[in-house]
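hiii, so i know i said id send this last week but things got crazy w the move. better late than never?? heres the sequnce for the chain we talked about at the cafe, plus the structure i predicted for it. fair warning i was half asleep when i ran it
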Amino acid sequence: MAAAAAAAVGGPQPSQSEVPEQGPALDKAATAAHLKAALSRPDNRAGAEELQALLERVLNAERPLAGAAGGEEAAGGGGGPGAAEEDALEWCKCLLAGGGGYDEFCAAVRAYDPAALCGLVWTANFVAYRCRTCGISPCMSLCAECFHQGDHTGHDFNMFRSQAGGACDCGDSNVMRESGFCRRHQIKSSSNIPCVPKDLLMMSEFVLPRFIFCLIQYLREGYNEPAADVPSEKDLNKVLQLLEPQISFLEDLTKMGGAMRSVLTQVLTNQQNYKDLTSGLGENACAKKSHEKYLVALKSSGLTYPEDKLVYGVQEPSAGASALLVQGLAGAPGALGQAESSDEEDQDGGQGLGKRKRVKLSSGTKDQSIMDVLKHKSFLEELLFWTIKYEFPQKMVTFLLNMLPDQEYKVAFTKTFVQHYAFIMKTLKKSHESDTMSNRIVHISVQLFSNEELARQVTEECQLLDIMVTVLLYMMESCLIKSELQDEENSLHVVVNCGEALLKNNTYWPLVSDFINILSHQSVAKRFLEDHGLLVTWMNFVSFFQGMNLNKRELNEHVEFESQTYYAAFAAELEACAQPMWGLLSHCKVRETQEYTRNVVRYCLEALQDWFDAINFVDEPAPNQVTFHLPLHRYYAMFLSKAVKCQELDLDSLLPDQEMLMKLMIHPLQIQASLAEIHSNMWVRNGLQIKGQAMTYVQSHFCNSMIDPDIYLLQVCASRLDPDYFISSVFERFKVVDLLTMASQHHNTVLDVEHERSMLEGALTFLVILLSLRLHLGMSDDEILRAEMVAQLCMNDRTHSSLLDLIPENPNPKSGIIPGSYSFESVLSAVADFKAPVFEPGGSMQQGMYTPKAEVWGQEFDPVMVILRTVYRRDVQSAMDRYTAFLKQSGKFPGNPWPPYKKRASLHPSYKGLMRLLHCKTLHIVLFTLLYKILMDHQNLSEHVLCMVLYLIELGLENSAEDDSEEEVSMGGPERCHDSWFPGSNLISNMRHFINYVRVRVPVTAPELKRDSLAGTSSDDLGSLQNSRRPKVLQRENSGTAQVFSLVAERRKKFQEIINRSSSEANQVIRPPYTPKKWSAPGSAPPLTTAILEIKESILSLLIKLHHKLSGKQNSYYPPWLDDIEVLIQPEIPKYNHGDGITAVERILLKSAMQSRMNKRIIEEICRKVTPPVPPKKITAAEKKTLDKEERRQKARERQQKLLAEFASRQKSFMETAMDVDSPENEIPMEIAAAEPQVSEAVYDCVICGQSGPSSEDRPAGLVVLLQASSVLGQCRDNAEPKKLPITEEEQIYPWDTCAAVHDVRLSLLQRYFKDSSCLLAVSIGWEGGVYVQTCGHTLHIDCHKSYMESLRNDQVLQGFSVDKGEFTCPLCRQFANSVLPCYPGSNVESNLWQRSSNKSTQDLIKEVEELQGRPGAFPSETNLSKEMESVMKDIKNTTQKKYRDYSKTPGSPDNDFLFMYSVARTNLELELIHRGGSLCSGGASTAGKRSCLNQLFHVLALHMRLYTIDSEYNPWKKLTQLVEDMNSQLGNEEQQPEVPILYHDVTSLLLIQILMMPQPLRKEHFSCIVKVLFTLLYTQALAALSVKGSEEDRSAWKHAGALRKNTCDAEKSCEVLLSFVIGELSKGKLYCEEGAQECAVVSPTAWSPESMEKYIQAFCLPFLRISSLLQHHLFGEDLPSCQEEEEFSVLASCLGLLPAFYQTDHPFLSASCLDWPVTALDIITQWCSEIRSFTERHAEQGKALLIQESRWKLPHLLQLPENYNTIFQYYHRKTCSVCTKVPKDPAVCLVCGTFVCLKGLCCKQQSYCECVLHSQNCGAGTGIFLLINASVIIIIRGHRFCLWGSVYLDAHGEEDRDLRRGKPLYICEERYRVLEQQWISHTFDHINKRWGPHYNGL
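okay and structure toks below
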């Protein structure tokens, strides 16, 4: 078949039979069927030719691309270029289907899909999963569907957003374990899939080669080499757009499954097909032209086409000539020395980076061929070539990847990819879109190289490793510059230039990441480690980074431009050097791999030697420069460490000679010294970036590839070099040699005085770290992990994720410790306790934290590790503070402790030499000198220095040398120059050695000279001499004169001996190089002279004196063993573990006594001399002075502490009163003003001017208030069942049952049938968009407030609020506010004046009320107060939107304002009720009351309401209290709409209207009167509602029962009588007539009992009683009683005075007993009912609906959220927006009503408002609470501001996962959600959340 096809494809033969012209689709189908039949015959020659001709005509690349090339005009005219292509696609589909329908054909092919692999390909931003438990390769990923179909419970998985794209690995057992496959891919399905019938895909085999060739021709045609100056992306994209349908068609074919993929694989890889079609032979001009374009493209890419005349007819002009390299990566082999090519110069021109030196690669032609030659033999190869040329278009990438499940294709494609690798690198370097391109490259390569089997095969067959290393080398070669390290002029070393785009933009990362990926496979890494040539090349590559980004210390000017190149440098070292190193190390774990380590170490040392030679390094590093990048050193160190730790190699066999070791230690030591210099601010003129480098060097992601190897290398060098040499090198590098003198004054030649102390601390700290760190010296992985974890936890409590981030893991994912692995969790639970997330009262939310266990502080706290791992110095302090707190709390030590001394793990035998540092004389001299200086209070010494000195002594005692004092003596020779100080080198014996005299060089001004009687002592008596320029040591010469040597000279001498230079040279070197510098500035330093000091101390005696000094008492030290000899035998004494310097000294003395009897004796002797040996007088004076100083300091400190404590307590008490805004339950009350009963005038304190006084007409005081619109009330529902957030399409939320909706319906119903102005008095609004007023309780003068606002306006500081909108923060408590509510002059508590109970009758009171209401309220004269009242009213109106204020049919009618004003009062009362939990059972003057501003608000509202008079005709008061004679006058004029019947009025609204219409202040008796009258109406409404609720039978029974008792004495207070009367009255109308079948539904299943009726009536009336009681509480300051829930009604009724005082409670309580009718009950009821009758005659249904008022609202709640966040995420993150039907980029959902919105979505913008802002206005009147689906966080919108609130979903460790970065499963935190809901209900978002910003309507 294939042969036939190939023959058929042959040359273009003239068509045999006539092919009909393209007709409609029918003809296409017919032709296809005919052709298929023809081809199915055994002799299919004719059919093949016919098909050939047809394809020639249909798939002709000439016609459409003329359109593309011609550009726009073609596109405009005719059918455009698209038409022909569409037609061609139609033909292809018909032909493939062979005449049948294309869809049926697809389905048929799919049936034969043996899909064992998923292979779903995705692009960037797709949500995928990664399971570390199931993955074999770290790059494994699964699509969501496969993940959820598989079983991953309890696995370590996470969800992630793909950055570069990827593909699903489900079913691929090379990449993941089979247990993790999903249900679809578990079945190995190849067995039961039937064989593909031959004729199904026959047409495909003929058609597809032509189709793909056609596509390639298009790609060739469309590609024009970009001109030098114009980037041609536009043109490329145009071509790609035209080809979109073709590529999509191919992509669809790949999705048909395995059968079609194998046909495509055949087509793509068949070399014969390719040869026949693309050779460009024959007379076809088009094909020829296309072939030429192809050759041009190859050539211009710097690639040659190998000459092959037999196959290719067209002779290529340059074939045969030397390979041309247009890119100039390196010249052609013949011309390597050529000048740089033009391409390079262009790049250089702009950068101005000095002359660049091109480096010659030592590679032969092999590399050239890797770089230059490409030969395409199949469609696949050329397709990939064009894919790269077009910079990896997404569609092409997806098509190539979709084919990967086909195994044969996978291998072919991988080989092709490798073959094009160099070309990919060149294209990437030139690309303008290198980021996108990098992602696409990795998208492909990660699929290929993650598979070990495939990687191994390609490595063997295609030299993958050679190619990769060479390509990387070439890539970096393009940006090399000359290194300026050390010898700037003559340096031959080159380094990468970190300022180049290649490094700055990380362009190299795709290649490096591929390299790291293949090195993770053992078989590949082994080949690499065995290939010496490769290792040499690689070390060559690494050396490009050695010494890059050199820093030179600025000494004079501050640097003008801070370069940020260090980011690039650190990233490059980590990615290009360290990660491959870790990859290789992970394969060197066992003995069998020793050979590999030897290879690496060998080539590494060679490279280092070359490097030292190249930079001309001898023995001294150049001053004032440092590079943090020494990858060669680090390779060497890490392989050494591995060799000793895992491979049992002998360390010495891998180490070089002493000279090399000396060189090796210099640069890492230079870095350590520079770190100290940077922290001492000596590099401050280099800008902040140098600090950035110092931090990055030790930061957790870098430390184990940078500082750890450096310190390890120094430890190795120290263990093998002469200890005296090493110690003196350290002090010289740290520039503190001059400081180490016994003299009290000295002159430092290389360091300013102010830096001396911190540099000395740095040097000692470094020595302590060097000697006590065991990371590479014998700790196991688990011990290391534990130590790292303890160090991090000691600095601060940490969340789980930050711990994972802070603990340095091996950067290679395949190495031992994977974060989240078993050992991590087990170590964590061993060292730390989990603190669950809690809330702080301020509302800030805590995450779940881990905190160290007590025993960790006790035994494992290691300050050395903490110092090593801190990025910020403050963390060390933080760790010490926490340690101190622990000791205080556990009672172990009360004072300020010193860092504890921690015992170290034992050293690996290979490193035992390290401890010799502790037993060398140089160190002992330094320690002795420092102890002496500290005792004498010389300048620049700190407690830290002493601490480190003691630490070093203690380390020396712990690691005492094997007693070798005997040998020491016999060594002799010039080495013995230190003997004059100490006899041997063992610390234990040197501690007791007394030093009597020291000769020092001091400035002539020094105090030592003034009183020095010993100056004449002959030099023979001298114990030692010392010169202050360095601690110098005497060496006797024959002449008997004392020659002065410095430590440095000493060091150099050793260096010389080792190097064996001639002696004459040596003499020159010994002269210290700094001498000339010293005298360069005459007069700057006083001349030096020699003085002799009498010391007579040993280290032990100094320690004992220090003990006296530290404790401030003479003779404070008493040897403990004199009392208890046991101490000397006990190994550990807990009392000495924790403590301060005194404890440390005692511990050291005890240890030295334990180790040597001599020491014990000497200590006792020193202590026996009761008074210490009298030192020269000056010392006592000095000591006295210090003691005085200390004492004074101590006292000052105590004073300061006291002041601070006092201040703190004051602040605390202020905070308690002022800042307490969290939740209304637990507030501490704050009186607005003192309310002593006898004071009639309220006094206000102004928080701005601090004066207090009453509020007056001219200078009113006001309350700081926040006005906000609120729709919380409208969210109340009538059922307790919480609404759930919808998480499926079926679930929807409809707002019909919300309070707001019900009230809206009621108002519109009333407005349909009744007079508008009357309707507006019958209800309240403000359920949605009501104005809520709240205050912090602080008052200020209104004029003070105005000037305060003025100053805020002029303040340039960015505030979180808008001053122009009147917003400010309370000057005292900083609570957010936006208005000031004037305080009405007069008493704050009116109750006192108006409390006297009068015995007026109810009738009199009713008349008084009517009269008072009738008086018009004249607006008071224009005073400041009235102006303020007006302006605050304006503020209140403007707080809410117009739609929430205007309900009238006639806009702007005064009724509207009237309605709005009393509704404001209603809103505030209702909200307060909700804050109290919906009832008043808790009673008490709740804090909400104390903080409430209702009293002041009422004054303002009443003042404005009194401006409107209600016509006395229409005043509802009349209807309530009088019988109106003429009933008919109302009904007379039919054409007018009637008034609202009184029974339809909302009683609570009536209450507010009546009260606000009264002149203020109101009298208590009038208030009670109004409540009584309204209660009668309310009760009647309850009866009417009850009558409608009952059934026909119920009604007749009730009517009958009541009629019997009608004439009893208390008929007016009898429920039955009144109910029967109401039923009688209402039945006269048609209210009950509509009974029919539908009525039966309403009947309650249980019959009404008297109890249930009573219960219904009480529930109906309760809301009114609650609001009235609250009102009474605010107006008259009476406390609310507390009660049980069931007695709330009766308690409130008696509190309001509804219950007669003599009421007995023995029989069950009846609500009717509260009635007190103003006129005869039955008459007034008749009057009220008659109003309804006339209405119900026409509208019975509506009449009934209006009677039943739903009054039992439940408290408002946010939507209930599901337990697991994933359920929300999976549903919403793919959900399309209802407005624009696209999937939003940032979807969000409203937690109040469940609406799905686009955050920042421009598609849904309306009048410049984005959807979230718009929704917050419609749903919450300006407050919106949204859950951001892709981030799991909640965002609050409040008016024009917004803030991120945090997340209510936490992971298993109690942490938020903002932006779902970690992708761990998240679970609801109920407690947080309750807090969110609480803040919503109590309107405290503004007060509790601090970080607000403006959203500019863009959310």
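btw The mean pLDDT is 78. thought thatd interest u
miss u guys!!
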